Each structure stands twice: as structure tokens, then as C-alpha cells.
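go over this chain:
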Amino acid sequence: VHDVLITLSVYAIFDIPVNSSFIAAMLTIVGYSINDTIVVFDRIRENSHSMRRSTPTEIANTSINKTLARSINTSLTTLIVIGAVNVFVPTVREFSFPLLVGITAGAYSSIFIASPVWVIIKGKMNKNKTVKTA
């Protein structure tokens, strides 16, 4: 949702018209973001099994550190290619520009928003377990 809202906001701020290429780009952004978030959550799942005595914050921090280089490299290489397509292939600019905005926002959200949300949810679940057992 974050990536789509950021891209929509850029289009609204700069008054860029929306067309069918924009819709296709938004769906691509959603898929790319979900994939990147799944990679982070998969690492959290793996680390939660091996770090049973750690807090959710420590697990998320370790998981982010392990996936940070991969996520940044993937996003940067994708942005370089889409940027080159945006510059050198003018016929697909209506598709490539929202991808540039969305993938940039997606790189941020999968690392810095998804994991803290997991920590918050995990903390609330742990509070509910202690309340029910008490």
C-alpha cells in the first residue's frame, strides 16, 4: 500500500495523467514490493527459529542486516535498468516512470516499514498471551 500511495502522490503532485500503462506499472510495483517483503519476512522466520531466546526487535534487526545488501543491490540494479529504459526508450516512459518511483519507495518500505510492523504485531501478540495466561 505504501509504494502505491507514494507513486499516486507523485502523480497527483505533478499532475501527470493516468493511463493503462500506469495501471500496469502499479501492478508491477505491488508484485515487486511483495516479493521484496517476502524475502525479509522469510529471513525473519529463519532467524526466529535459530534465535529463540532473542526479542522480536533483535530478530528483526539481525534479519534486516542479513538482507540489506541483497535488497539494496536488487533495487539499485533494477533502478539502473529502468532508468536507462526511461532515458533511451521514449515510447515506454509512461510505464517506466511510475516504476522508478514505486521501486524506490518499495526498497524503503520492505526494509524500514515491514519489519517494524512485524515487531509491533509480535509485541501485541506476546502481550495478549501474557494477559490470557495470567
Q: What stands out?
A: The CA atoms of residues 7 and 92 lie 17 Å apart. The chain has a mean pLDDT of 91. DSSP finds five helices and no strands in the chain. Helices lie at 2-13, 20-50, 56-88, 93-112, 114-133.
